[in-house]
Write a structure and sequence with these properties.
With about 240 residues, the protein is α+β, with helices and mostly antiparallel strands. Helices cover about 50% and strands about 20% of the residues. It has two domains: about 80 residues, Helix Hairpins; about 150 residues, Histidine kinase-like ATPase, C-terminal domain (Heat Shock Protein 90). It is built from seven helices and seven strands. The strands form two sheets. It has a five-stranded mixed β-sheet with strand order 2-4-5-7-6.
Length: about 240
């Protein structure tokens, strides 16, 4: 009886944490966007107005990622999800997604280095899912990085697949937590959610997307030395 009560209590606490974190993640960018737009409406200096409008755009882009993750999480099944593959240009996806993060990287005093192999073959995937996958990995690299840090994104053809790796110079992940980070809402039960924010779904969704296209997502990390997330996708032939 005591064990059942403890499980119910844990579930109730988890539900409360989910609601609190989701509310915070949605409210914060809205507050920033509203404030920036209000200031922009009264601003006469074109440069200042443009800066405020870009701030609002960046905040709403951040909120869009949160909403996309919530929608994706709601559609995730307990079993391995299989997705209909199509030919996707990985090089193009990398360029588009990295361009979305230019202002966010600048805001966090981070730099990104792209090491993309020329003439990458098409991969078996889907554009929207692949963008969300890459956004989540970059969001993670930004969130847990250090001020003045760096992100290195590599993409290459390797043994019949295309491999993409996102490496950061952040806080790193202890070995005993490296498998748990792919569990949905894992961060909710950790103090990191209070320090770094987030709803604890990004990496779980990334793994589900990769495996849905018969790929693999792995992590290698050392505390204090940063983390590297690599995923592979089959080549479209």
């Amino acid at each position: 009886m005591k064990t059942a009560w403890q499980e119910l209590k844990s579930l109730d606490e988890l539900k409360s944490n989910i609601i609190t974190n989701v509310g915070h993640e949605l409210r914060t960018p809205l507050t920033i966007a509203n404030s920036a737009l209000e200031l922009a409406s009264d601003e006469e200096d074109p440069k200042e107005k443009n800066m405020l409008l870009k701030m609002a755009e960046n905040a709403l882009s951040r909120q869009n990622i949160v909403v996309e993750n919530l929608i994706e999480a709601a559609s995730m099944k307990p079993h391995k999800m299989k997705l209909p593959p199509a030919p996707v240009n990985m090089d193009q996806i990398i360029t588009l997604v990295c361009d979305e993060f230019i202002r966010t990287l600048k805001k966090h005093d981070l730099t990104i280095e792209l090491r993309v192999e020329k003439e990458l073959p098409l991969v078996k995937a889907e554009n929207t899912k692949l963008k969300l996958l890459l956004r989540n990995l970059l969001e993670n690299a930004i969130k847990f990085n250090k001020k003045g840090g760096k992100i290195i994104l590599k993409a290459r053809k390797k043994d019949g697949v295309v491999e993409v790796c996102v490496r950061d110079t952040g806080i790193g992940i202890p070995k005993d937590e490296q498998e748990k980070i792919f569990d949905r809402l894992y961060q909710m039960d950790s103090s990191t959610s209070r320090v770094y924010g987030g709803i604890g779904m990004g990496l779980a969704i990334a793994k589900t997307i990769v495996e849905g296209f018969n790929g693999k997502l792995t992590v290698s990390s050392e505390p204090g030395e940063g983390s590297r997330f690599c995923f592979t996708l089959p080549i479209y032939e």
